[in-house]
Amino acid sequence: MTIPAGSHGLTRHLGRLLGNDRGFSIIVAMDQGVGGVNKGFEDPVATVAKVIAAHPDGVLLTAGLARRTASLFAHRGAPGLVMAMDQAIHRDAHGAGPAVAHTTGFSVEEAMRVGADAVKTMLIMGSDSRSDQLQNMAYLAKAGEQCRHWELPLMIEPYLWGVEIPSDPRGRAEVAADAARIAVELGADIIKVEYSGDFEIFQELVRTSPVPVVVLGGPKRSTQREVIANVIAAMDAGAAGITMGRNIWQQPSIDIMISALTVAMSSRDLDAAMAVLEPVAAAPV
Q1: pTM of the predicted model, to two decimals?
Q2: In Å, what is the CA distance from 237 to each residue of 2, 56, 195, 213?
Q3: Quick check: is 192 catalytic?
Q4: Catalytic residue among 39, 120, 192, 220
């Protein structure tokens, strides 16, 4: 995978997350604990340890959990660390259901203190409040400025939430494409965005993006086959990798799921990836 040109610090940090020999990146999102206790995440330190033992390229954490698990990253070959700077608050407990609010909480300086290789923040799309939208964009622009000061990569996640988000997959994909462009304009070094299922629109989004595009996992899927098929489609469209949470750490075996995703992303062979999951593939997720 080609690392975009930048400052020495930026290039090094991006290389930690994207610069492996496989040509794709697997980042495990584990910032959902701000919604409370999630199934499979009851013991946060132990779960992070299991994820790291499965050798992903990166792990996405809150500042609090990054501090509590610092020793797990303190060895050669440990994954890169991405720190979440903000959170969406959901209607239901444990981060489920539609989002109802968005809050910012941490700074780029805090990310530097915990040893992060990048920070992640959200571009909120779909709100009918232009004032809220402008405040969010101003926050992202300031975060981008701070990241450039510290030579730290900025991952922006277009978050499609609000009354103005279309319900049909194609309309949703078009909003995601617009959001990806806005993220670049605001200073994103990595874009984390959903794959709605519209191959052509997503392929064009990736083709025209000057920065790497990784696919978020989204809601927990009903089957492992559905998870992997979605990842293969996004990779075929040009994605640089995935940033996936529940669809990894809520699986019966974290390391086997990451192995199956690795096979899927390298071979684009759904059946080969599913073979890795046997005999756990038949279990509901």
Answers
A1: 0.91
A2: 17, 22, 10, 11
A3: yes
A4: 192
